[in-house]
Amino acid sequence: YKDFAEFKSFIGKEISEERLFKSMLKSIYTKKHNVLIFSKDDSHPDCYLRIGHRIFLIEFKDYLMASKTMTSYNAEIFQKKLNLQFIENDKKNPKGVSQLANQIRFLENSEYDFDIYTNSKIRRSKIEIYPIIVFTDLQYTMPGINSYLVKCFWTKYEDKSLFKEVNDPIMISMSFLMKYMQFFAFSNAPP
After folding, report:
1. Is the pTM of this model over 0.85?
2. On the CB side of 113, how many CA atoms lie within 13 Å of its CA?
3. 35-38 and 47-51 beta bridge pairing
4. Residue 44 to residue 2: CA distance in whole angstroms
């Protein structure tokens, strides 16, 4: 690897996402009627889970909070880093909450080809949407981060009331999923 960023990218994709995150969700949501899809297509969520009338759009983020950001004690630097990782990167590509907002907008008028739920006579007006970001660095559990990203999400997504409900996005740490994996598997509860 040329540098730490390249190494971290490999670890994040091949280990954290491919081997841990995906295999964990596959072992939890094993029932036939659950629709669990992992997609490599950038226009799709990293993970799509539908349990009945509830759709969980999950973005997986294996970011490290830079020590320079943490020790700067500067709110503007901290906010800029959050924006780059969870809203829009330097290349103006959507990240995190922006990706989730785009996916919900897509579902307002269409369906992913891997889950044509209208064939099962499920109407959009009965669907509940749950946008979720799963992250690995516990620094992102700091108070205020989730509420800041919720505000950013609602500036990116305008609810047109086509669904029964679009919930606030939530951030869940990978360690939380691991710790309560048995509970989710036993109850078939969403993440």
Report:
1. yes
2. 3
3. antiparallel
4. 30
